[in-house]
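Researcher: I'd like a structural prediction for the single chain below. Treat it as a standalone chain; there are no partners to consider.
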Amino acid sequence: MSTSNTTIYINAQQNVELQSEDVYVKDIGKLTCSDEHVLAKVKAIKLHHFKKDEPKRQVISLLKVIEEIDKVCPGASVESIGEPDVMVEYINVNKHKGPLQMIKLIFVAMISFFGTAFTIMAFHNDIGINDVFTKVYEMVMGQQGDGYGILELAYSLGLAIGIIVFFNHIGGRRITKDPTPIEVEMRIYEEDVNKALIATADREGKTMDVQ
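Model: Treating it as a single chain, here is the predicted structure.
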């Protein structure tokens, strides 16, 4: 079957996580073609196999993908509308199971909780929040306050509500459909890390590319 007049469109992703040791063209992104038989052949092309003694991250150049496609479908035209390089990461899900993973999760949660609490207390102590409340109480009531009162209670409730609104979560439920600030920052951080890893692999000559 001739493929000289066939056009294959590839929308490659920047980062791909796989649970399989074999990497196929279908794993690196979305593909479309007017010929379903050609599309099936292209999706089944194997690009890489992760061995036990090699890093679990591999950067694959789209030029390498096009080269492999040309071997199977000579004469076919390939149009890339995605990323020029794809970082493929192999994740062994069986490695992350068991009580050790739960211990790690609890440990990180405790650090996050107590670390945040300590930061808030240190900030309040640094700005002298108790002195501020005392001054405000004396200005409004005309006398010195005796301990904690309505100002401290309102501030504590407002702080909790502000954190909930800012992070857009109540427990496991989202308040609105908008992404939370943490999610936005994590996406930006993930993109920066991917770009750095791809650039490093290219600089060190570890990218799967055409010869």
